[in-house]
Amino acid sequence: MTSNNIYMGAAVRLTTLANGAVTNAASAEKLAKSAYDVPVRHQVAPGVTALGGHGFLNLTLVEGPEGLVVFDTGERLEDGEFFLREIRAISDKPIVAVIYSHSHYVFGTSVMLADTSDALIIGHPLVNVNITNGGSGNLYGETAPLQSSRTMQQFNYFAPESGPHAPAGAKINFGRSGFMPVNTPVQDGQRMHVAGVEMQFFTRHGSDTDDCLTVYLPETGVVMNNILWPFLPNIYTLRGAKFRDPREWRNALMVIRDLKPNAITGTHARSIVGAAACRQTLDDVIDGLNAILDQTLRGILLGVGPDDLRSFVQLPAHLQNVPCLAEIYGEISHFGPYLYNHALGWFDGDAATINPLPPLEQAERLVEAMGGRDAVLARAQAAFDTHEWAWAGQLVNYLFRIAPADAAVRALKADVLEQHGRVTPGHTIRGWYIAQARALRGEVRIPRMQFANTRLLSLAAPAESLAQYRIRIDPTRCADMDWVVAIRITDRAVRHGWHLRRGVVEFLPDPDADERQPKIELATDYDNWLRFFSCKRDLADFLGACLIPQGSLAEATAFFAAFDYYAASDNILI
Fold it and tell me: To which CATH superfamily is domain 6-333 assigned?
């Protein structure tokens, strides 16, 4: 059977990158047209230089009469050190201001401002709070640790440095944090002079986060932004995030278009110079987003369900080769189900799908219907041998759900995922496939959750993590417990609590306002609590560092033992 599906045997041209990575050749070629692939200093206007080609992150330097302004600082302190050396090759003026495009690349700041104690740190009003949640754009802060683990898979953290499984795109790097909080939040449309340069700020619309800041320099016609990307806007990212409304992303692009820029610099994209080139690129991406949303909604009205939307929604032919619409970060096939779910929820309209069998029982019955484990494994292997990788993956996944420790099943699933990773055009999609293939082979260990370090967690008020802790309650361990517990964070001078009512926990901002008096009172410093909250310190050590002026150690132990604790030995994805 002939297929145009690359995951079912359609021809895909592969290439081997300099680091040995085997990947989709067309994807690599498109990215080279829209993103810097080697380090450059690209002057886009007088006094405005894009420093690009350092990983997947660019920095824009603005030189004003009163000093330098830096747009973005990196994902770790080492990036800040690198960019500072690049900046000093251009100018020895002091850096008097840093502007954050959004909350993802803010960790090189302190080294840049080491000699400037009164520098402006300009950003969207939400940057500081988003940083405390891990910067992954969570709808619920409680899911941040899981999303951090997903981010690590997405951005090649588990990929080797070289060889066929090496990164084909961005690789996340953990290092020292030089984050400094925003001290000058700005509002939409606000104007100010920074380092003697007139700037206008736009905060209303966003892209991959809700804290994006677009900056317009009227004197040169330059726009600095995190809105125009070097590839298809990732309306949906597999790590999960707050809903990304394509209308918001489109409207943010329209704001830039209405400014009629002469040049555009961005967090990831190759800079665009020339009013005509800026206009054409913006029009193309705006049209691409409109096409994806409108064809999804059209399909819904025609009765197309979420799964069928994967193949229904396509870009018009004239947009399919636009570099800034290349499916390098995500794939269009992922967006239709996502938008459908947001518009209508999970139900596809077919009454037969309202109450399906649980996935494990489905797998057991299907495997039995197909002749049992050996027959299904043989079918999966035959599909793999004929390059029908998607079908092979579906078959082997039934077996994996039933017996995840089965060595033959794990090996074939790993092989299937590796082949998916080779042919996908999406670099971040490839990251998922390769990471989990390597985990199945025992080459890496992927944590199910990855908590932020306590330094970042401590930027939030204690009430945030204390409130989030409530979701870890296991109702089976506390069916008869109706207790109020107060906790005082001694070095933050706050006192909060929880009311555990037989399997449900209510966070108490003020435990004295509850009609019940605390059965247990704890006192601890913030670091001790955060280490326990992030599962870097076990219950015995946590309580050992607490004072317990009310209640007993045994009662405190019983209370916290009713909550889940994510020990490292159990915190494994595969």
Answer: Metallo-beta-lactamase domain (3.60.15.30)
